[in-house]
Design a protein that fits this description.
Strands 1-2-3-4-5-6-7-8 form an 8-stranded antiparallel β-barrel. It has 2 helices and 8 strands; from the N terminus they run αβαβββββββ. Helix content is 8%, strand content 61%.
Length: 191
Amino acid sequence: MRIALAITLALTGAVLPAQDITGGLHTGLSLPVGDLKDKTDFGTNQFFGAHIGGHLDFNITSHHEVRGQLTYHNLPGSGWGGPDDVKNDIKILQIGADWVYHFQSPNMGWYTIAGASLNSVKDDYSANSFSGSSSQSGKLGVRGGGGFTFNRTFSLEGTLNQVFVDKHGSDGLGFDTATWAQVSAVFRFGR
């Protein structure tokens, strides 16, 4: 993760000297979809998860912004039934950079998000007869979405996140991509 932080800072550092920098917190729901949710014995078998994180916003112009973000997702699981009743609790630590385009201004109106991230994914699994964990670090992820800024300190946004993980091996998750929708309340400071 240190490398990911260095890359994020390097990517956004080129625009720092003459630009407006703000920061904030975001929190909300993480909703697993696809195999992350419903692949029998490998998915979470749950509709809800939660996330919390922080971000730094670098306003390049009145419409363009680069955002560095760090987010922790907790996707608790429930049992799949059957003889072993497997349960998967997924945790994801995500660090990345987003390109944000504001249609009106950074302080009001609609915006879009396109980003890339490095992710650490951990699955704590348990069953009637066994338990353990699998973890994968440095996995590439992409995301896209949009939001609406109500005022200079508060926004609501939604994104679709996809992380490319290893299906097989000792730390395999049983599927190739972890996908989830993220709905966030975004609080900004310093504007």
